[in-house]
Amino acid sequence: MRNDNGVTVTWDEDGDGVLRLPSGRLVRGRGLRSPMPSGHPPQFGVYLLGSAPDQFGWESRFVRWPDFWLPRDRAYTTEVLIEALRRSGSERVEVACGGGRGRTGTALACLAVLDGVPPGEAVAFVRDAYHRRAVETLWQRRFVERFRS
């Protein structure tokens, strides 16, 4: 099924943690410490953690990103987020960290930048559309403001 922008609809837009990007693409953010939301599982996941997670049963990328900090490898993080944005046009993509707010919110804000939101507005966009406490630290906010593909 495609929406008015011609983008394949991949998640239930009203589902827990689902963020609609300006292009109409849907990406789900979540915290891994919370139960898996109901509905279909992701087809691709980006996991932002201090150490490698167990396998999930779907294709995924692990980004080494300690809690409350920034990703260890910024170039790799950018590659993974570009891949996630591309795949979100036709697949169910999720982005997750432990709690689902700081690292996840930061990555979702970077996806919003890749999708056309000005870097200085991306944190507010994600806080409004995903979680009001997304992007928890000053350095995470600065990371988004300086983010470029």
CATH architecture: Alpha-Beta Complex
User: What is the overall shape?
Assistant: globular
User: In this structure, how is the largest beta sheet organized?
Assistant: 5 strands, mixed
- Give the integer mean of the pLDDT values: 93
Lateral strand order in the biggest sheet? 1-2-5-3-4
- Number of DSSP strands? 5
* Low-confidence blocks of residues: none
- Indicate how many domains the architecture comprises: 1
- Rounded to an integer, what's the Rg over CA atoms? 14 Å
Helix content: 25-40%
Please name the fourth-level CATH homologous superfamily. Answer: Protein tyrosine phosphatase superfamily
Count of DSSP helices? 4
Strand content: 15-25%
Quote the CATH topology: Protein-Tyrosine Phosphatase, Chain A
CATH top level assignment: Alpha Beta
Which H/E pattern describes the elements? EEEEHEHHH
Global structural class: alpha/beta
Concise summary:
This protein has 149 residues and is of the alpha/beta class. 29% of the residues lie in helices and 17% in strands. β1 (18-20) and β2 form a beta hairpin.
Walk me through what this model shows.
The chain is an alpha/beta fold and 149 residues long. It has a single domain (18-33, 42-145), classed as Protein tyrosine phosphatase superfamily (Protein-Tyrosine Phosphatase, Chain A, Alpha-Beta Complex), CATH 3.90.190.10. It contains four helices and five strands, in the order ββββαβααα. The chain has helices at 74-87, 102-114, 122-129, 138-145; strands at 18-20, 26-31, 44-49, 59-64, 93-97. A five-stranded mixed β-sheet has the order 1-2-5-3-4, with helices on one face. A hairpin with a 5-residue loop joins β1 and β2 (26-31). α1 (74-87) crosses α2 (102-114), α2 crosses α3 (122-129) and α2 packs parallel to α4 (138-145). It is globular, with a radius of gyration of 14 Å. It starts with 17 loop residues before the first strand and ends with a helix.
